[in-house]
Amino acid sequence: MTMAKTGRAYKEITFQQLRSFCETARLGSFTAAAEFLDVSHPTVWKQVHALERELGTQLLEPHGRGSRLTAAGQVLLEMAQPAVTSIGTLTRRFHERLSISVTRLKVVSTPRIIVEDLPECVLQYEKRNPRVQFSLAEETNQEITSAIETGRADLGLTASPGDQDNPRIEYGPGYQLNIYLITRDDHPLAKKRSVRPEDLVDYPIVNTPDSFPNPAVNLQLADLGLFRTQPRRVEAHYAAAIRRYVGLGFGFGLLGRLPNAIPEPGFHERDMSRYFRGSPIRFLWRRGIVLAPAAREFMETVQQMLGASQRRRGPGG
């Protein structure tokens, strides 16, 4: 039986129409289909009849207290049922696929932070997040900001104060470094029971005058006259270079270190944070974006592991 296409309540075939039709065919009545779909009986009836008007033919016919498929209805059921089933489970399948899909997270930081602070955090993070494709890249402080601004990286970690007024960058807390005196085991400062800032003046410092990201620390060292002590045969800016030349006997160094860091063999390390302000390490990301769960979890991992060490020891060790 064909049906004339008169005033149409629906402009095109919808998923709701097909689903109402398929469930009515499966369950044998509009009432049963409405109960299964958790909608009213008139809603199912209207959707099925709208589908019949769209296709121009009767799909269901009365049968006892319910209904049964016509020949045309059987054809449509065979065509539509796979699609309806597939779309009906789309939400569940989407979330299942999403849960196993690869998430990418790129973090940029300075060589010192990557080498000395982050290894255990990275291992712990990857253990907890095996489906995250994690990458870590070395950059200078200036390059870190650029990488975040341009989207080359998702998250940065830096000791640099940065430009607080940069409209493209957001900052968040990370953890704190204490200032440590680094000498060889045989250096005179290593043999002293206690060391005060004025005790450093008698020996050459390996650091450059601007080696600390915190300008207040650099100014404090300059006010002490540490950079006037001679001979100063080496001026090193980066932690690896400072440590290397301290080990070669060119003087002492001052470095930002985690409170629970284990001294390297042959070196004497002394926490000087009671005299020198520590360096805060901060996260940065592009302003205006919503941080992905993978990025937030990495931040939390670092804050918990490295911030906890600061709380256990406290300033001055």
From TrEMBL:
It comes from Lignipirellula cremea. InterPro entries: LysR_HTH_N (IPR000847), LysR_subst-bd (IPR005119), WH-like_DNA-bd_sf (IPR036388), WH_DNA-bd_sf (IPR036390). This is HTH-type transcriptional regulator CysB. Belongs to the LysR transcriptional regulatory family. It holds the Pfam family HTH_1. Residues 13-70 form the HTH lysR-type domain. Keywords: DNA-binding, Transcription, Transcription regulation. Signal peptide: none annotated. PROSITE patterns: HTH_LYSR. The lineage of its organism: Bacteria, Pseudomonadati, Planctomycetota, Planctomycetia, Pirellulales. The keyword Transcription regulation applies. Transmembrane segments: none annotated. Gene3D superfamilies: 3.40.190.290, Winged helix-like DNA-binding domain superfamily/Winged helix DNA-binding domain. One of its GO terms (molecular function) is DNA-binding transcription factor activity. One of its GO terms (cellular component) is protein-DNA complex. It comes from the Bacteria.
